[in-house]
Amino acid sequence: MLDLVIRNGLICDGSGAPAYRGDVGVRDGRIVAVGEVSGEARETVDAGGRVIAPGFIDPHTHYDAQLVWDGLAQPSLEHGVTTVMPGNCSLSLAPLRAEHRDLLGATFRKIEEMPKNAFDAGLTWTWESFADYLAAIRAGLGVNVAPLVGHSLVRLWVMGLDARERAATDAEIAEMQRLLAECLDAGAVGMSGSWVDIDHELRPVPARLAEPKELDALCATLGEKGGILQIVPEFWDADLLCARIDLLADLSRKHKIATTFSPLFDSNAAPELVGIALDRVRLQTAHGARVVPQMQTRPIDLSFDLGAPMSTFATLPGWWAMTLLPHAEKLAQLRDPERRAALAAEMDHFMMPIGLQIDFADSYVKRMGTPDPALIGRRVGDIAAERGCHIAEAIIDIALADDLATSFGLDAIGHNDDAKIATMLADPLIGIGAGDGGAHVTNFATYGDTGYLFSRYVRGFDAMPLETAVRKLTHDVAQLWGLRQRGLLRPGYAADVVVFDAETIDRGPEIPVEDLPADGFRYIRRASGVDRVFVNGALAYSQDAGYASARAGVIAERIAA
Amino acid sequence: MSTNLAPIRRFIQPESGDDWPAIAARVLPDEPAEAAIEQLKSWNLHLVFRPVSVITPSDIVFVEPPRAVAA
After folding, report:
1. What is the domain count for chain A?
2. For residues B17 and A535, which has the higher predicted lDDT (pLDDT)?
3. Which CATH number belongs to the domain containing residue A141 in this structure?
4. Quick check: B3 and A246 CB within 8 A?
5. In the predicted model, what is the mean pLDDT of residues A481-501?
6. In this structure, are residues A218 and A154 in contact, taking their beta carbons and an 8 Å threshold?
7. Are A53 and A59 a contacting pair, CB within 8 Å?
8. Contact: B58, A253; criterion CB under 8 Å
9. Nearest CA of chain B to the CA of A242: how many Å?
10. Which residues of B touch A202 (CB under 8 A)?
């Protein structure tokens, strides 16, 4: 007898093959039959003609912290995501010695933009090793996790605080290789790095202090163990990005590893960039390299406030420094005429950060601690004109009157040429990813890119057929990352299954919720059109009943070298 | 399979402890020191205009100017 049969669906099996009417049978958490499935089952689900597809796989998340208190990785799971990859961009939460927790915590919160209160309240550090971190999250998992180990963490473990200061010795590199192998044996699917990130003290993250021979040695270990290399390059500059693609291609060929970089981002400031980068990837692929860019589906929307340092202020050092001050001191500075004038002057002459086109006059009052109907939704430039003040002063005064609780929005400031992105997303060499789930929680909602792929680019632009979109979210990712028996509806494969309506699947509007530890606030998006999500054969989410109590998620195995 | 692809723009990666004078002396040995440093910086504004001006061993240092965009 089967445990579960999902009948009367449109089977989209993840391979990209044409969809067909059929059923899916499940036993012991595995798919045992696909097509016309006979026999009895303990539970029968009528898909009602909806799509039955493999669960989606999200290759770029920062759920490392959230998984400690929320093994469902909400709200990704309700969008059909059944496997997440945390640990991107050189930052995981293990291996980490106890004496480095404060340092790593500050770095992680700065780069991934997480509120300190939620981070501190939600994290109970019970681990040092990578294996112990996985043990700490394993029991509560409602989604599958295919974790990366961060290069910065590997360095910090082996070199201590010197990891922030200098290159490694040959002996230290050998020890890093041993440690990386240990993490891979414990369940890591690869290693992540960064060529761009800076920590809370504006210093390069430890991974950036590595000489090329260190990264080469670690990639040799990845090659021996069958792990992937993920890295974040200078994605806003075509020449730099192409140089990085060449470096990744060399590492891929030499060590026979898959590499992926994120994001490939369509910058309005450099619209030719994605085409140049894709040409380079195409050339290197033709020469035997495996370098896969990850592109997000959604346009860039940002929110900012004056409560904490945010990427919006990355090229505004005075604003950045101001947001770091204690609350009372910050209020005093924001009222000081000289300081206000300096902040206004800085805003007049700032450099656009990372290819985004930001005009603070176009920001709008998005959310307030004490809502003022006369301000909510209004453009800051209009408010400033009405008040006869500088836009910087308008932002400051609105925030001051609201005890700095006001959140300002900036919409469609990059990656928003839909027609161009439709073409890019359809390219076989470009992967869907770079979503950043679990990060930047008060800056933008990183959720629902999967639904948006279908609503905007399958139904809207007709950029690719349904089957291709499913393949790009499932089998393509599983194959690149070497996940064992995931990403396809095939007998023997894990029963990670999503049932959705192809005509309505979408992301909902961005909404504020207070579901982080310590009543922490974040922006999320709810799903629509996703009927049911199964993880390893167990119902994890349904549109009617919400999240289920099952915790059937596992640490996803990779295919060993 | 050939891997000798010409780069889009020639670059090096710094050696540990490198600064502008050291890199300039190595990659532009025939230029006067100050001129070589200024030349190099002008090709690498991504390193010059950083929040904290440090050069790391993983950086890209271009050793030629940007190529002209084809008309």
Report:
1. 3
2. A535
3. 3.20.20.140
4. no
5. 98
6. yes
7. no
8. no
9. 7
10. 51-52
Smallest CA–CA distance, residue A287 to chain B, in Å, is 6
Paired residues of A204 in beta bridges = A198
Q: What would the two tokens of residue A321 be?
A: 């420094």
Domain edges within chain B: 11-62
Inform me whether the C-beta atom of residue A276 falls under 8 Å from chain B C-beta atoms. yes
Longest dimension (CA), chain A: 79
Residue B8 Cα, gap to closest chain A Cα (Å): 7
Phi first, then psi, for residue A9 (nearest 5°) are: -115, 175
Residue range A99-130, pLDDT digits in tens: 999 999 999 998 888 888 899 999 999 999 99
Residue A287 sits in the same domain as residue A186: yes
Nearest CA in chain A to B59: A195
Looking at the domain assignment, is residue A479 inside a domain?
no
Question: Does A524 map to a domain?
Answer: no
Q: Of A506, A428, A482, which is closest to residue A184 (Cα–Cα)?
A: A482
Given CB atoms, is A270 within the 8 Å cutoff of chain B?
A: no
- Reported pTM: 0.95
Residue A471 falls inside a structural domain: no
3-state secondary structure of A2: strand
**Cα gap A385→A383, rounded to integer Å:** 5
Specify if A454 maps to a domain: no
Nearest CA in chain A to B61: A240
For residues A96 and A215, membership in a common domain is answered with: yes
- Name the residue type at position A119: F
| Domain boundaries, position A321 | 302-410
A226 Cβ contact partners less than 8 Å away, ≥ 6 residues apart: A482, A558, A559, A560, A561
ipTM score = 0.95
